[in-house]
Amino acid sequence: MEEFFMTKDGWCVWITGLPGSGKSVVSEALVKLLHKKDISVQLLSSDALRRALTPKPTYSLEERDMVYVTLAYVAKLLTQNGVNVVIDATGNLRRYRDDARRQIPNFIEAYLECPLEICIKREAKRKETYKAPKQIYAKAAKGKAPTVPGIGQPYEQSLNSDITIDTTQNKPEQAAKKIINTILERYG
User: What is the SS3 assignment for the chain?
Assistant: First the structure.
């Protein structure tokens, strides 16, 4: 009877990369493909969480620390209760992603590689922002957004990402399929 109350831990995939690298569109494609395979998953967006925690965000280091610590904690709780999680978040400092990896046993870091110049062009012409602030690179160029990762703040590429996908060579659905293959290889 005790086995009835046992749950299998869920897994967590953190999709990281510069703003404009394709995190949100790849995350959305991944969630859709997982649902088609009858794999349930919860999408956690740092931009959506930031709106709940800090309605008037400053993007300071202290605020980023709070958002990313909270994001990792929520993902940990969900996975401990058998919920699969996809995190859509820049997580510009390596320590944010490493902290989540330490807390969550079934963890995959998916790095979306994309040159800054391409990210800037993509971000300038995108219509759907998935709750992200609009025109962040244009604002950074004018000095109105000094903490944009890749411009005013560093983006520390992972030293141990589980999968790296070049989003200049892979459409969102292709990237999502590669991530699903990694998930299934590990936890399927």
Answer: CHHHHCCCCCCEEEEECCCCCCHHHHHHHHHHHHHHCCCCCEEEEHHHHHHHHCCCCCCCHHHHHHHHHHHHHHHHHHHHCCCCEEEECCCCCHHHHHHHHHHCCCEEEEEEECCHHHHHHHHHHCCCCCCCCCCHHHHHHCCCCCCCECCCECCCCCCCCCEEEECCCCCHHHHHHHHHHHHHHHHC
Q: Quick one: pLDDT at residue 147?
A: 82
What pTM did the predictor assign? Answer: 0.91
End-to-end Cα, the chain, rounded Å: 26
Question: Are 82 and 8 spatial neighbours (Cβ–Cβ below 8 Å)?
Answer: yes
Q: What's the rounded Cα separation, in Å, for the pair 57 and 110?
A: 26
pLDDT averaged over the chain?
A: 90
Domains of the chain: 6-187 (3.40.50.300)
Q: How many CB atoms lie within 10 A of CB 38?
A: 6
Task: Split the chain (188 residues) into runs of 10 and give each run's mean pLDDT.
Answer: 63 97 96 96 93 85 94 97 97 97 97 96 77 72 81 90 97 98 93
